[in-house]
Amino acid sequence: MNKKNLLLSISLVIFVAAGAQYKKASFLNKTGRIYDIGATMRVLGNERSSAFGFFLSYGKEGEKRIHHWYDTEVVLGSDFRYTTVSSYNANTPVVVSGKTGSDISIRYNWGYFLTDQSDAETKFAPFVNLALGYTGSWGYGTVSFSPDEYPEKNVETQTSAFVYGGGAGIVYRFSDLVGIRLSAAYYGILDGKPSSTVFPKLVNHPAVNFALRFKMNRGD
After folding, report:
1. How far apart are CA 63 and CA 200, in angstroms?
2. Around Cβ 23, how many Cβ atoms within 10 Å?
3. Which is the most buried residue in 85, 109, 116, 128, by most CB within 10 A?
4. Could you tell me which CATH class the domain 3-215 is placed in?
5. Alpha-carbon distance 194 to 162, whole Å?
């Protein structure tokens, strides 16, 4: 089994186990179920532009500080531009530029509220969280060379990666049913040792998220 398949298998096991735990904890009950609709921005840097996208989340929170949720996130491509040399002549510089394809991520998040959640009147709810997921791309994107010579360092063709990370944020509740979530996180890409002749599409990066939150507080 190669590394990609191994990581994918690990991810699937984690998601299945998490789903089983949710079911055991009556996760599908309407009371306390949360839904987030939001926007995200990856701050990539290192010859890459930021990437923007959107996400849908669902999970469960209650009076306890521990809560859980899943993210399904679609991120549009980012622009890149870097300089290398021709693979045929080390004295010829080649500028490589283009745009990556869009990708979709699925993450499981474990969160912990830093304040007591038993008071129904609580408006601000700061939290920290850990995340684990998988990202896959459905488009190669575009790339061009100037001059038109094959570069020594070319854009990677890999379309998937195992992702892990953590962050912090705050939930503000306008009412028992509606609120907003503002959060930031840092994600690492587990993809083995990078090659000096490959320009990776996705690297370790921070991200910021803003979402509108809906909460179900009835059991019918």
Report:
1. 43
2. 10
3. 109
4. mainly beta
5. 14
Domain ranges in the chain are 3-215
**pLDDT per position in the chain (220 positions), as tens?**
444 444 455 555 555 555 555 554 444 456 789 999 999 999 998 899 999 999 999 998 877 899 999 999 999 989 999 999 998 888 899 999 999 989 999 999 999 999 988 777 788 999 999 999 999 887 778 899 999 888 999 888 767 889 999 999 999 999 888 999 999 999 998 876 667 788 888 889 999 999 999 988 765 4
Strands (E) across 14-102 are located at 33-42, 51-60, 66-75, 79-85, 93-99
- Which residues, listed in sequence order, are joined to residue 207 by a DSSP beta bridge? 42, 185
Beta pairing, strands 178-190 & 154-155: unpaired
Residue holding tokens 């179900």?
216
Phi/psi of residue 148, each to 5°? -80, 70
Chain mean position to CA 96 = 26
Q: Is the pTM of this model over 0.90?
A: no
Strands 198-199 and 154-155, sheet pairing = parallel
d(CA 43, CA 107): 18
Both tokens assigned to 170: 């705050």
Residue type, 6: L
Q: The tokens of 59 are what?
A: 């999970």
